[in-house]
Amino acid sequence: MTEQHKINAISFNKASARELGWHPNWFGYTAFDWNLVLGIKRWQRARSLFIDGKVGPSTFATLLAERRARGLSTESGLSREVLYNRASEVRLGWKPSWFGAEANDEALVAEILRWQRRAGLQGDGMVGRASFRRLIAERDARSPVTTTTVVTPRPDRRIIYNGNAFPIEWDKVILWNEEGGLKAKEGTFRWRGNQPKRDIMCFVNHWDVTTSALKCAKSFDQTGLSVHFLLDNDGTIYQSLDMQHVAWQAKGLNFESAGVEITNAFYLRFQKHYERGGHGKRPVWSGIRVHGDALPDFLGFYPIQIKALKALWKAVHLATGIPLDVPVDDSGRTLETVDRRVEAREYRGFISHFQLTKRKIDSAGLDLASLMKEVRTEMER
Predict the structure, then answer these.
(1) Domain spans, the chain
(2) Which of 120, 59, 45, 46 is nearest to 88 (CA)?
(3) Residue 28's pLDDT is what?
(4) Domain 158-380 carries which CATH code?
């Protein structure tokens, strides 16, 4: 940890305390210093929160609820929603004006709740990670169309695992340390350099609900998340960190997995955005079910993204030894809900995020069973 990172963490907590009204003694400390940061980290770890030593929205919400449950003073007459949003605004960088409001107050909570309902989100009036990513996608769809970068296809590309390079049969791959690369922000992942090689059991497929790999990467930087790979609209694969490191991308399975975010804004209203950007119309997926429920029609992945994804699976398999297996039902079709073996960390293979938890639906419609069959056939040639 550099001295600048220590200073940044201490400064963040000072600003958070001024905005929200908490005190170092709530964690058993008397001053805003590095010891407080370490104490907050221990407190976060004990409660399975994101560990960064900073009192951001999630940490403060948990802290406030805990103190109230114990009958301790919170020294604030503001609602939990307002307190959360004020911390979220500082951490993520959004503005009340984005919702048509003038101040971060109870009136804004009502505006956020109306916006969430229109967007098909679970309404709670608070700007958490999911709401923020959707908000960024909607604002991006109204702005001029941009692409992440123009990548010249290059042969002999590689992906990195534990500092070693492994070949990938795809000529549009950019590493985090190359020109035009997307690097995971320090502090958004668990660094495991110079440690025994990580045993990666699963590879998790996500869709990012943003409009480009760049937008996804920026969103992750702001929300404290990370992922090993990002797959853009044109099939470009970005590796943002060595697979040896633990990315915060699949809660409950982070230490046993690696993952990819496949760019796709999901909602049909974003179709014109992709056309304006020169990508052409996305496929529309219909009749997709997940966790026993039928999903409304939504945007699927471009064929070029599917080709790139299969190339990535092959490379990850060769690098890590993850079996070319996927969760299937009794008929051999892609399982449409949680696989209990995945949930219990007893499964090795390639999965979609929804097969880990019922809180997720990505990547519904991605026919893992059929695609993995194609991968096996291609590798046997």
Answers:
(1) 3-127, 158-380
(2) 59
(3) 79
(4) 3.40.80.10
For 51, the token pair is 């560990």
Tens-place pLDDT, residues 245-269: 999 999 999 999 999 999 999 999 9
- The 10 Å CB-count burial string (b at 16+, else e) for 301-331 is bbebbbebbbbbbbbbbbbbebeebbbeeee
Q: What is the model's pTM?
A: 0.73
Closest CA to 268 of 235, 306, 300: 300
φ, ψ for residue 51, nearest 5 deg = -95, 105
Q: Please name the amino acid found at residue 112.
A: I
Pick the closest to residue 205 from 322, 344, 297, 377 (CA basis): 322
Cis peptide before 363 (omega within 30 of 0): yes
Token pair recorded at residue 36: 């407080």
| Interval 28-41: pLDDT, tens | 788 899 999 999 99
Closest CA to 112 of 141, 89, 143: 89
Distance between CA atoms of residues 30 and 25, nearest Å? 6
Residues 6+ apart with CB under 8 A from 173: 157, 158, 159, 236, 237, 238, 239
Residue 61 dihedral angles phi and psi, to the nearest 5°: -60, -45
**Structure token digits, residue 115:** 């916006």
- Per DSSP bridges, beta strands 202-207 and 229-231 are unpaired
